[in-house]
Structures are given as structure tokens and as C-alpha cells.
Specification:
The structure is a homodimer of 221-residue chains. With 221 residues, chain A is an alpha+beta fold. At the A-B interface, helix 3, helix 4 and helix 5 of A face helix 3, helix 4 and helix 5 of B.
């Protein structure tokens, strides 16, 4: 008989089809799978529904995932990944310089790449079918295109952003693959190949399977 | 005679008046000042001008700051702050739980708050005077308002986001104070007071003075 895992992550019990496999607990499952750490799931109310007071106490923005381990309750997937990375050098190198470089890519993914893609997602979400949609999109698209061009240039023909896979790649790949602006990502053959390399990893594949299984269990019977 | 500091940060030699005191090297100066660590400056080409190949090799997105120390070249202000925080518990608590919580607020500032404010900045920047500006702004504003309302709720009447000042506060305050959407921030009295508390710190004040002094030296004579 195995003991219950020490680590708990929250996930939603339901999201629309288009979001399945893309909710942010996936990147935490992926990281834990990379180092073979078991975890238990706690399913919280559907995305978009009113958030319980308990969940808001754990996650001020009412999102997933929340990560619990012993006395630690942690939110923000970037911070959760960093915490997990400190457990195992396969995610975050122990060498001081290599470790700092990996964290630079984590922050780059979350603050220099994702926001410009996300702005376009918000414009699509709120503007679809309205007169302002097309000009807003045309005016904001160059910011995202510029960041992806810069990212493509620095990646070049390398396999990963530094000389080995790190949490910087895990986060960057998860952001690129889940963006609603796939045409912008796939405008760069090396970024497409980079996403394919990352998502071919067994730890990623089993993370997707686990997230989809949670929705199955959450489905009204 | 004192030795030259080991730490080098880059800053711009010129930016428009509206950006002075707000460029992102400020948060790194602020953190170094908090723990009394000296640094030297390297001024790079004006913001908006063509970036040199050397600078792009250090900073793939052509921005400031770049941080150098020994064999380490680091970009992304979040990663730089994290690296500095590991030097001194006044910035980042040594306790495992408290440290992880502080990093959660760093990521929250950069990924859960700033992007929604920045989307409005981009809409203003590109849309001002155009027909799409007002409807785009009205449709995207609620996302930023929601995050600020959630932030205000979790801060409540406390002095800092956790029980003491950390890099999470430094980064959140710098993002709130430099946002172009000051009306949204100041809609919450406790967020206004929080920004005032942070920017009253001597380490912040001397960081502003140092950034402005660099523009003076960079000014065409």
C-alpha cells in the first residue's frame, strides 16, 4: 500500500472543450511528471463559476492551480514551478549561472512573450464580430509578432533555450502551444519544431492525459 | 580607495520625459539599494533606437536592464530581482514557506496584474484618436479592473502583501506606480496608500535619483 502523496494541486472539474488540455495546472503536472513526483488532485468549481471563499483564500485571483505541500500553500504557476524546480536539477540546474539563466527564461515566457499574445486573445474574446475588432487586432498584433521574432532569433537551431531542457522551456512551450494565436507562432518553423519537441516528452503527454481524465470525472453523470 | 563594484546593470542614456523614473532598471537599483550593494552602470543606446548586436546578445528582447556579475549575464527584471534576493533575507525571507510566498507575489505582479494594465497601455499607444480606441478600451478595461479589485481585496488593511516587505511588494509597487492607468489604481484607496508606502522608502528614492542622473549624463551637450 502506497502512502497518499504529500503534494496536492487544484484543477477545474469542468472547462469548455476548447480549453481542455490547456488549463494551467497542466504545466505543474508536467513538471512533477518530469521528476516522477506523485501528487493528488483537488477539483474546484468550474472555470467561470463563482469561486468559493476557501479557494479565494488560497488563490487571490480565483484561478488554478493552487499547490499545497506541508505548511505551504502556493499560487501562480511560475512560483509553483520554481518551487518544484528547487527539488530536482533535471528541472532547474544546480549551477548558479545555469540556474539563473533558466529562471530568466521562465520570466521571459510569462512577462515578455505571453502578455502580447494574451492581449490579442482578449481582443478576440471581447471584440469578435464588432467594428473595433479588426483595427484593434491589426494595431496590437505587431507587438506579439516582434516578441516571437526575437524569440525565434535567439532559439535559432538549438534544441532548447539554453544547452539543456529546463523549466524555462517547459513554461515557454506551454505558453506557445496554448496561445489562441497559433498562426503567429507557426510563422516561425523553429518555434513550431520547438513546441513539437517539448510536447513529445512523455511527461507532457501523461500530464495531458491526467488533466483530461479529471474533466471526465467532473462531468455530470 | 574603493574597488569597482562587481555588479553591473545597463540603463538607457535617454528616454522621453514621461518615462523618466519609470524604466525597469529602477526596480533593480531599488533592490540593490535596499541591501546596500553597490553597482556600476553601463548606458546603452536610447530606448527606441536600433539595438546593438552586443546588447541583443545579452538581452534577446533588446531591453534594459541587463545584469552582470562575475560569469553571469542575466535579463528579465524578475529573474534579476530573484537572483539579488537570494543574497539577502531583507529582500527574500530564508524561511521556505515565506520565501515561496514572496515569489508567488513576484509572479503575480508580472503575470496576473501587469499584463492587463499593459494591454490598456498598448491600446492607448496605438489607438489614441482613432475610432477603435474607445470601444477597445471599454472592452479590455474590466480585465484590469477585476485584477486590481482582487489585489485590493487581498491586501486589505495590511502594510505589505505578506507580513513583511519582500521583493513581491517591490515588484508589485513598481508595476502599479508605473502603469499608464493611474485612475484604475487610485480607484482603490488601499492600493494608493500601498504605493505611497513603498515609494517613501529611502532605497526607492535614491534609485529614482540615480536613474534620473544617468539621463542627465546621457543628454547631448
Amino acid at each position: 500500500m502506497t502512502e497518499a502523496p504529500d503534494i496536492e494541486i487544484t484543477a477545474y472539474d469542468w472547462v469548455p472543450d476548447m480549453a481542455r488540455g490547456k488549463v494551467k495546472d497542466l504545466r505543474v503536472r508536467w513538471a512533477l511528471n518530469e521528476i516522477g513526483l506523485p501528487y493528488r488532485e483537488r477539483l474546484v468549481g468550474n472555470a467561470g463559476s463563482e469561486k468559493s471563499t476557501d479557494h479565494l483564500a488560497d488563490q487571490p485571483f480565483g484561478q488554478v492551480p493552487v499547490y499545497k505541500e506541508g505548511g505551504l500553500t502556493l499560487f501562480e504557476s511560475g512560483a509553483i514551478l520554481l518551487h518544484i524546480g528547487e527539488k530536482d536539477e533535471r528541472l532547474l540546474p544546480r549551477d548558479r549561472v545555469a540556474r539563473a539563466r533558466a529562471t530568466a527564461w521562465m520570466f521571459a515566457a510569462l512577462n515578455s512573450v505571453e502578455p502580447f499574445l494574451q492581449a490579442l486573445f482578449l481582443v478576440d474574446l471581447r471584440g469578435s464580430g464588432q467594428a473595433w475588432h479588426s483595427p484593434a487586432k491589426e494595431n496590437l498584433r505587431p507587438f506579439a509578432e516582434n516578441r516571437l521574432r526575437q524569440l525565434s532569433a535567439v532559439l535559432g537551431e538549438r534544441e532548447w533555450l539554453e544547452d539543456r531542457f529546463t523549466l524555462g522551456d517547459l513554461l515557454m512551450i506551454d505558453i506557445l502551444r496554448t496561445s489562441s494565436q497559433q498562426d503567429l507562432v507557426h510563422a516561425h518553423a523553429n518555434l513550431s519544431a520547438y513546441v513539437e519537441r517539448g510536447t513529445a516528452r512523455p511527461a507532457f503527454q501523461s500530464a495531458v492525459t491526467a488533466q483530461l481524465a479529471a474533466f471526465e470525472r467532473g462531468e455530470p453523470k
